[in-house]
Request: fold
Amino acid sequence: MRHPFVSKIIPCATVVVAHLLTSPIQAVQYPTIDPAYTQEIYTGPLTGGPGMAWTSSNNLLTRNGSTILEYSPTQNTTYKATSLHGVIASHAITGLSSSGVGMTNGLDGYIYAITSGGLQRFDPSNWAAPAQSLSGTAGGLYGITTLPDGRIAYSDGIPGSSVWIYDPVATTNTLIYTGTALIDGMVAGPAGHIAITGQDNSTITVLTNTGTVINTFTTPHFPDGLAFSETATSSTLYSNNNDGTISRYVLGPGYTGTPTTSDIAGISGAYGDLASVGPDCAFYVSQFNQTISGYHGSQPGVGTHWDDTTTSNEASIIRIGAASLGGTAPDCPFYSPLMDHVPEPASFALLMVGLLAGSTIIRPRR
Reply:
């Protein structure tokens, strides 16, 4: 990830289908897209980095240094003839480091942010509360994700970077893997696998959550942000690529074997960066202008293709929707480790008591 900004929730089939049927015609960021998928320029011009998280009301959040931007759940603004989800609130978080870009929703209700000084977390139900620094954690910039059991996996973000797992309950921080390249995008799967992308060598590696390598393969696209999807017979990964494409990798059960690779979205020209799966089970991918000529296949000066037919160097987030693809749930073609709802941090202890007693108050999506 080299760009100028170095810096559930219950989705249901009817909601996804309704969104796809009622959304107006959107700007086309990708010149071609597999007919099983849809594309929409969700918001832009983007200010800050490509890390994403969501409120308990399903509003998208992005990070601009120590400020969190919150977006409308409906289209509420127009820019260059493009209907967009605009910023409805700007939350300055006391004590949140301005370094780093990655964020993830914790299953305890906090949002975890990766910073050069270590992990921090803040409470999206109480924006006035200061950020908490998590002692003993490593500093990083980009990759961070939430495991189905609530632990936080993240990378220290340096060349030859490592993967760590922070346990919010035990408050432990464990090194599980050290790679040979800068680890950029990172995502957790439904069985607790962790997929990471190598920024310098165009690789995707799949790990167990104890650090054992299950699979590693190279691609020609320089993958960045990732998403998981599983069926009964295969395991699938998606990548938002630096060269402006989106790829699908179909592997064998457990993410083994040589992938069958296809591009579901053709070259946008923009620099594809971090990505996330939203509470609507869509794949949200960031698009940036890369100022280094031809870097990883991107085109300088290209960020977003607006509805007025102009192409600008402005960044944006694109929503990739899909009908059911036989994925991890009938209503969710892309996997997210978020619970059926994200509890407020103050209620997490009560929920843990219920969980330990065998309650079904909170349930991971499978």
User: Anything to note?
Assistant: The mean pLDDT is 85.
